[in-house]
Amino acid sequence: MKVFIKDPFLLPALLAGFGLIMASRVTAETFTTLHSFTAPSGPYPSTNSDGAYPSSGLILQGHTLYGTAFGGGSSGWGTLFTIETDGADFTNLRSFAGYPNDGANPIGLILSDNTLYGTAYQGGGGGYGMLFKASTNGTGFTNLHSFRLLGSDTYNDGSYPIAGLILSGNTLYGTASSGGSSGNGTVFAVNTDGTSFTNLHSFSAFYQTYNTNSDGAAPYAGLILSGNTLYGTAVYGGSSGAGTVFAVNTDGTGFTNLHSFSALSYVYYGTNSDGAYPQAGLILSCNTLYGTASSGGSSGVGTVFAVNTDGAGFINLHSFTDVDQTYYTNNDGAVPYAGLILSGTTLYGTAIGGGSSGFGTVFAINTNGADFTNLHSFSGVDQAYHTNSDGAIPVAGLLLAGNTLYGTASQGGSSGNGTVFSLSLGSVSPPPDSDGDGVPDAIDQCPETHRSAIVYATGCSIAQLVPCDGPRSSGTWKNHGQYVSAVLQSATDFLKARLITRRQWGQIVTAAAHSKCGWNRRSDHDENRDWHRDWDCTRDSDWGRARNWGRD
User: What does the alpha-carbon distance between residue 483 and residue 481 come to, in Å, rounded to a whole number?
Assistant: First the structure.
């Protein structure tokens, strides 16, 4: 019998959120299975030497990949492992022992210097999950925080963390999939030494019908940080019960539901316009968040989406196509559980189903939704032992190093217990950028920007957006006040995008106010064109230090 899990909520242990890497678009060449996890033995939890069912992504230091396996190891509760990028020297750094003295089912890692930080879905002193750290050689393992039961259904700090952490300074931020004041999960912060654990937000209780609420519920994915704002997703809740995209300040204030996914035509597996049940985390580029939804869309098997950081401009970039109801196959994949990699103007990701054999895909798609490409379809598995050559059901995201993607598949391989794989990519071809401002020509609205200028996502500097002679559209400024108002608006947009600092914003607006732009006198215009050009090119002017804007 085929082992593909059609219900994405039957195996919550296989969920994780993933991060962001910037590069240039590349094309797939060679798939390599770096490691097949060995077969466990004995009753549950079954044991082996290396681990089983890897369900989170990888991190890289030098030529060494670090990861976790959800099960297996000497106690059957998962492992922390390393492997070289060429597949050599697989090492089980640590086998988790489970409750009450250790964590169980590790999922997700981050690396800071030579210290790994991670989460365990279960175990710890309370049995409801834990946060841990360890050295990159496996020594110095420390339980930073054990999630605990405080009531029949609610846990003050959260329970069952199923995503990785992020680090800012000495503070770790993460999510717990349940618990909190209403049992629907939490966003939390904790110091790297385990002190000062803080519940930043408890997701609210459901209304009486359809799992709806105001903020979301069950955050299965990790967070991303921009400035003092954390962004994330919740699988359920929101106005239709189909999940949310949210933002919250690092001190727990200012929680905002940026987007509630719309209702499905049928609960869990129906269709809609935007997607539903987002299992994965987000990535951020300029003011745009990109992510995946595991269900919904035009065929009911998930979407890739984009939304502005203020919640406006939601776009369904891709609805995964309908699948064969017998073999669960299609051309592009189905049910994306993991987050995305942003590479130039291309997004890379994985889907746990669909593809030519129904066991998942690695895919690429442009940030505008064009040119969707199935880079690899995982092969079919043996019906008795669930084995194959490459892996199956990739629930985790990807890592890009050089021209190679690295990832994990939760099942398949020579023993049916998952794989670590690489997908080598063709030569890197950066998109043309004639003016060297970092914005490809295809989307650059200001093609002659000075190389030293700080530009918006459109490729335009403030000087180009607000010329001294008059508005870009046509004509001249009605008066000096109109000109200053336009500079104020553009500078504010750059500040919100964190391209400049507040001090530099003030310098820009002050310089504009002291200029003679908009006075409608030719001699003044000639003088101010030169001054205006300094905004982009002269590092010695008060606010023309373009190279340094936003880097102080």
Answer: 5
Token code pair at residue 186: 């939490």
Nearest to 546 by CA among 452, 447, 432, 408: 452
Distance CA 467, CA 484 (A): 11
Backbone angles phi, psi at 135, to 5 degrees: -70, 160
Strand 198-202 versus strand 186-191 pairing type: antiparallel
The answer to whether the CB of 252 falls within 8 A of the CB of 201 is yes
Angle between helices 480-496 and 502-514 (to 10 degrees): 170
Are 386 and 415 a contacting pair, CB within 8 Å?
A: no
Angstrom distance (rounded) from CA 72 to CA 328: 28
The owner of tokens 């020594």 is: 139
Burial of residue 152, with CB atoms counted within 10 A of its CB: 0-12 exposed, 13-18 middle, 19 or more buried:
exposed
Identify the CA nearest to 81 among candidates 50, 48, 49: 50
For β-strands 115-123 and 103-112, DSSP reports them as antiparallel
H or E segment to which residue 7 belongs: none
Of 80, 86, 81, the residue nearest 34 (C-alpha): 86
**DSSP per residue, 507-540:** HHHHHHHHS-TTS--HHHHHHHHHHHHHHHH-TT
| pLDDT digits (tens), the chain, 552 positions | 222 332 333 333 333 333 333 344 555 569 999 999 999 999 999 999 999 999 999 999 999 999 999 999 999 999 999 999 999 999 999 999 999 889 999 999 999 999 999 999 999 988 999 999 999 999 999 999 999 875 545 568 999 999 999 999 999 999 999 999 999 999 999 999 999 999 999 999 999 777 899 999 999 999 999 999 999 999 999 999 999 999 999 999 999 999 999 999 987 779 999 999 999 999 999 899 999 999 999 999 999 999 999 999 999 999 999 999 888 999 999 999 999 999 888 899 999 999 999 999 999 999 999 999 999 999 999 988 899 999 999 999 999 998 899 999 999 999 999 999 999 987 555 678 888 777 888 788 888 887 668 888 788 888 888 888 888 777 788 898 989 999 999 889 888 776 888 888 888 999 889 988 888 654 444 444 444 444 443 333 333 433 333 333
**Which residues touch 469 (CB under 8 Å, ≥6 apart)?**
476, 517, 525, 529
Task: Please report where in the chains the tokens 């349940």 appear, as a residue.
Answer: 178
Given the structure tokens 């963390």, which residue do they identify? 161
CB atoms within 10 A of CB 243: 30
- Give the Cβ contact number of residue 514 at 10 Å: 10
- Whole-number Å distance between alpha carbons of 6 and 3: 9
Question: Cβ distance 305 to 330 under 8 Å?
Answer: no
Residue 161's nearest CA partner among 145, 148, 149, 178 is 178
DSSP line for 258-276: EEEPPPPSSTTT---SS-B
Whole-angstrom Cα distance, residue 157 to residue 525?
Answer: 62
- Whether 132 and 117 have beta carbons less than 8 Å apart is answered as yes
